[in-house]
């Protein structure tokens, strides 16, 4: 990426772009929470917003109304924001892209981001995601890391991406960067489908821990480690009050711990199918107890 930098853009040192999008790509809000954590701890500066009118269907991503000072009502529109952080204790800076997954014109949306990244001199792209999986909450969160090209895989010691199937905006954005000659890496955390509601600080923490050695930047986890521990304790307590749920989790643990467990390898899982499987499991348990 050697294009001249337009006026008004910051001069960044070997920047890495880190992106996450809400919705389909963001089970438990784990990925967007990771970017929000980094932007906060690294004191990111707002750069620009991508015009929402061009890319969002407001019947799907509706604006929200909030009261300001209990009197004035203000509308907040869905928006993709771009910010940056200059890190004094590192030789590289960071660009953040954060927003809900767009509904329209994905290729134009991605081209807009690639053009801006080009002007900023971005050298590496990392997209973060989280998917629903049948992993138990009691075990370490699996995080898959893959590179979009064999060259990037060799450079960062990762496996080339082998996923075939439907993709979200993260996959389309990665492809756009690869076509532009920029190395692109994806990290995906597995979120237990039976506790899919956000937040999931344990999955957010796992993504950040996997990200840190790849980008070579020290991450301040702040209170996130304690929040993850509290989350684990709360879920354990909830499960202990429900014999069926406890038995279900034990079954998942046995599957993960078995000799043929897949370890770090994750497979895209249909959340609706998992929910249906869980309901059948509970019905079967109920019938066995009658």
UniProtKB/TrEMBL annotation:
Cite a single Pfam family from the UniProt record: PAC2
Please give the InterPro entries that the UniProt record associates with this protein. Answer: Proteasome_assmbl_chaperone_2, PSMG2_sf, Rv2714-like
Q: Which PANTHER family does UniProt cross-reference here?
A: 3-ISOPROPYLMALATE DEHYDRATASE-RELATED
Q: What name has this protein been given in UniProt? A: Carboxylate--amine ligase
- Tell me the lineage of the source organism: Bacteria, Bacillati, Actinomycetota, Actinomycetes, Mycobacteriales
């Amino acid at each position: 990426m050697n294009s001249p930098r337009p006026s008004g853009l910051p001069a960044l040192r070997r920047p890495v772009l880190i992106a996450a999008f809400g919705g389909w790509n963001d089970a438990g809000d784990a990925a967007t929470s990771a970017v929000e954590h980094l932007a906060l701890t690294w004191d990111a500066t707002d750069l620009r917003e991508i015009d929402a009118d061009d890319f969002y269907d407001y019947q799907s991503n509706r604006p929200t109304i909030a009261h300001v000072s209990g009197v004035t009502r203000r509308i907040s529109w869905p928006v993709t924001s771009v910010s940056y952080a200059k890190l004094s204790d590192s030789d590289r800076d960071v660009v953040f892209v954060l927003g809900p997954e767009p509904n329209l014109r994905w290729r134009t949306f991605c081209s807009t981001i690639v053009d801006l990244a080009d002007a900023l001199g971005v050298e590496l792209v990392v997209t973060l995601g989280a998917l629903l999986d049948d992993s138990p909450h009691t075990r370490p969160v699996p995080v898959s890391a893959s590179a979009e090209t064999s060259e990037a895989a060799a450079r960062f010691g990762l496996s080339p991406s082998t996923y075939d199937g439907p993709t979200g905006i993260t996959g389309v954005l990665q492809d756009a960067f690869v076509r532009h000659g920029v190395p692109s890496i994806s990290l995906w955390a597995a979120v237990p489908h039976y506790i899919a509601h956000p937040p999931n600080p344990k999955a957010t923490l796992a993504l950040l821990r996997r990200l840190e050695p790849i980008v070579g930047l020290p991450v301040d986890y702040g209170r996130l480690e304690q929040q993850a521990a509290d989350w684990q304790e709360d879920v354990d307590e909830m499960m202990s009050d429900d014999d069926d749920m406890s038995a279900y989790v034990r079954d998942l643990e046995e599957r993960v711990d078995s000799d043929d467990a897949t370890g770090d390898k994750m497979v895209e899982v249909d959340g609706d199918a998992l929910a249906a499987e869980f309901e059948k499991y509970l019905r079967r348990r109920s019938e066995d107890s009658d």
